[in-house]
Amino acid sequence: MTVQQNPTQIMSPIMEAAEDEKISARDQMEALNPEAKELQFWIRTQKNAPSQQPWFSAAGKDDVGRLAPGQVGKNQLKPLPYRWRWSDYRPYLEKISKIAAGADVAPVEFADRQSIVLMNPGLTDRIQVTNTIRCSISIYNPGDIAPAHVHSPNASRTILTNNGGYTNIEGERCEARRGDVILTPNGTWHDHGNDGNEPVIWIDTLDWPLMEYLDCAWVDQDYEAAFETTDRIQPMRHIDGYSQKLYNNGGLKPTFVSHQRGFSQRLTPLFHYSGVDIQNALIALKDEAGDPYEGIHMELVNPVTGEPVFPTLRYGAQLLRPSEATQLKRETSSGYYVVIEGEGYTEISGQKFDWKPNDVIAVPNFLWRRHVNTSDKEAILYSVSDAALMRNIGQYRAQGKDKEGNVIQLEV
Q: Which of 262, 264, 268 shows the shortest CA–CA distance to 246?
């Protein structure tokens, strides 16, 4: 038989402590929760409230963005602003490259990738840069091949080396170079490889954590069943540049081909976004006024619909002119930046993260951020965020601060 406790037996020590130590009513109630938890209920206090400040809350000129005093849900974790330096992670890529080169069996055979996986310190041991995005940085030795596979997450490669190997997507060979962004939408068969003479390095980006949360993450490597062949790579049906030739004509959509590739819904049929094209487009616009919060900014979009390349992820590229400093901005979306060219720093919630080429910077949602180009040359940053997802569920908002520090709502 369970003995029922008298509530006064619980309250008395707490009330005595309140007299002695002037404990607030909130803390008194919170002190009940460890025992209440054993009875499968909890006392609602501010500490049980959301940890997120309202995105639209008024902010003073010196406000840098803060979390609320509440605690996150049991299984929820908050990412932190963070920077991964090229000078720190490159040596490890070189080490695993040498290990793989001397191994009897290449790591791509048993570990799927020769890579490092970025881990945001705010997400403990989760292999994520934000709550929705996973990033790994892969190195492929000459001759390395990742067999054909298809998966539910949307993914991309951002090429960091001059020769970036290749990705074969639905039979289209995409030969990569530095600054290229190659997309592998969910539901598209693809394989990767390096048939050059030097190791190649790229950033793998996926919305894998989101798919995991939705219990919808899967990978299929049964290439034989899908293509009725015993080869582990796809036969090349389209030469390098096929989708670029079809869709790089600025507002002109071919009507003689199907725009459905793979079995995904709402995918972009343009798989390969050239770094040279992106850079030339940005430089051609450098004399424009630009955006005070982003500089000269462009979004990678589906050329058929004009929508983001994925329903979940938004890809962008921006140019900061010499000594340009953007104004403070914050969004309900989170993501990361990778530096393609230039030197400077990004300020996030009052903390400065200086950057050089190939550095990666995570920017959580709701935090004020701005970019500063500290050099006398142009800087180019690429970005990936979950802004597309936030728009699709009606949760995208953005604010900026004007030159006087006043908070204004930005058009979305």
A: 268
C-alpha 151/C-alpha 187 separation (Å) is 6
Strand partners, 151: 219
**DSSP sequence for 298-329:** EEEB-TTT-SBSSSS-EEEEEEE-TT-BPPPE
Contact 162, 177 (CB under 8 A): yes
* Neighbouring residues of 215: CB distance < 8 A, sequence distance ≥ 6: none
pLDDT < 70 regions, the chain: 1-26, 43-75, 104-113, 218, 223-232, 234-236, 238-239, 241-247, 249-263, 265, 412
Half-sphere exposure of 52 (CA within 13 A, CB side): 15
Rounded Cα–Cα distance for residues 380 and 370 (Å): 14
| pLDDT tens per residue across span 23-47 | 566 677 777 778 877 877 776 665 5
The torsion defined by the Cα of 305, 308, 310 and 314, in degrees rounded to 10, comes to 180
Which are the contacts of 153, defined by CB distance < 8 A and separation ≥ 6?
A: 186, 206, 207, 208, 210, 211, 217
Q: What CA–CA distance (Å, rounded) separates 319 from 322? A: 10
Q: Map out the domains of the chain with their CATH numbers.
A: 7-48 (no CATH), 82-409 (2.60.120.10)
